[in-house]
Design goal:
Blueprint lengths: L2 E7 L6 H9 L6 E8 L5 H11 L3 E6 L4 H11 L4 E4 L5 E2 L3 H11 L5 E9 L5 E5 L7 H9 L12 E3 H6 L11 H10 L4 E12 L5 H4 L1 H19 L7 H9 L3 H26 L2 H14 L1 H30 L13
Parallel strand pairs: 1-2, 1-4, 2-3, 6-9
Antiparallel strand pairs: 4-8, 5-9, 6-7, 6-8
Helix pairs in contact: 7-9, 11-12, 12-13
């Protein structure tokens, strides 16, 4: 089966070449790669163009700056394959990513989005820990989350989506500018199974310029809005607009406001700890981690367990060597040009 891969990029010259090479080095060779340049003013267009001249599987789509949501939707619209894999320009596929997901789809023929686990990496490609280890891994778990009004979540760069299904639902919605992916996954989940391959297949990069790190406050309030819209849909109500959502929040009790403040502050501090850990500043890592634990331990402890403690236990049984080999970018094989 041929697969489309879409990489939206805006001023991503630092990591773009590595992202492209991780696609071209896939064990599944039957693919096309669309690099959607969203008005970059750095060297990104030149990097994409050089790869395109060397490999006929690559198409470069250029547009004036319209935002990453519009770039992602354009990639979906112009993809030629039934299934479309998404990759952010600063992340990486592991070599068997597409092959393993196609095998998973054969075993789960009703699925319409397939994700996977991943590894956090820093700017230099050093592995930092596991991410995305929660389900759903089977249709029963997916139904349980939807029926309980709980969101499904994926690493964006791990997802492979059924193109027709996503386009029929309108693709990514631009009003959810920073959480358009979460909105899409949950709209699909309300009608079709969306599942994860229970193994890490992508490398998710942490660095100060990523949207997750640079716009935490805005992203957090957008996330709460998209979850409120999800719950409204599943309850048969109209989705609230953003202004209506903000008015609804003003009517919360002080206890709920305090609880949400603690959760938000704990999340922000935990992300700051992760960023310092990625850059090797372990003193600041410890300081921010201690503060996040003190403010919201119920949020931080499960994440620490799933991302650091559980993988450490797996490493004791041979996972460490596999992780070392798969996440050393300098030793990754170069791609062979396609036909």
């Amino acid at each position: 089966m041929k697969v489309s891969v879409v990489i939206p990029v805006h001023n991503g010259e630092r990591y773009l070449a590595q992202a492209i090479e991780s696609v071209l080095s896939q064990t599944h060779r039957d693919l096309e790669l669309l690099v959607v340049d969203d008005g970059s003013t750095d060297g990104s267009p030149g990097i994409a163009g050089r790869f395109a001249r060397a490999d006929s599987r690559i198409r470069v789509l250029s547009q004036e700056r319209r935002g990453h949501v519009a770039a992602a939707n354009r990639g979906l619209e112009e993809a030629r394959c039934e299934w479309v894999a998404r990759l952010d320009a600063d992340d990486l596929f592991l070599r068997e990513k597409i092959e393993r997901q196609l095998d998973f789809m054969k075993a789960n023929p009703g699925v319409r989005i397939v994700g996977s686990l991943g590894y956090f990496i820093n700017h230099a490609g050093r592995a930092l820990g596991l991410v995305g280890s929660e389900g759903p891994f089977n249709e029963r778990d997916c139904r349980r989350l939807v029926e309980a009004n709980q969101p499904v979540s994926f690493i964006h760069s791990s997802t492979m989506v059924h193109r027709e299904t996503v386009l029929l639902l309108g693709g990514y919605r631009t009003k959810f500018l920073q959480v358009e992916d979460i909105d899409l996954w949950n709209r699909v989940a309300e009608a079709h199974p969306v599942l994860k391959v229970p193994e890490p297949l992508v490398l998710y990069r942490i660095h100060p310029d990523s949207m997750t790190m640079s716009r935490q406050g805005e992203q957090r309030i957008q996330y709460k809005w998209v979850i409120e819209c999800m719950r409204a849909r599943r309850s048969g109500r109209d989705e609230p607009g953003f202004e209506e959502f903000l008015r609804m929040r003003q009517g919360r009790s002080w206890q709920r406001k305090l609880g949400e403040w603690a959760e938000d502050a704990g999340e922000r501090l935990y992300q700051r700890a992760a960023l310092h850990y990625a850059s090797g500043n372990y003193l600041k890592t410890a300081s921010f981690l201690f503060l996040s634990l003190a403010i919201h331990p119920r949020h931080v402890i499960p994440r620490l367990y799933m991302r650091k403690i559980a993988p450490a236990l797996q490493n004791a049984f041979g996972e460490r060597e596999r992780l070392r080999k798969e996440t050393t970018i300098a030793e990754a094989p170069r791609y062979a040009p396609g036909k």
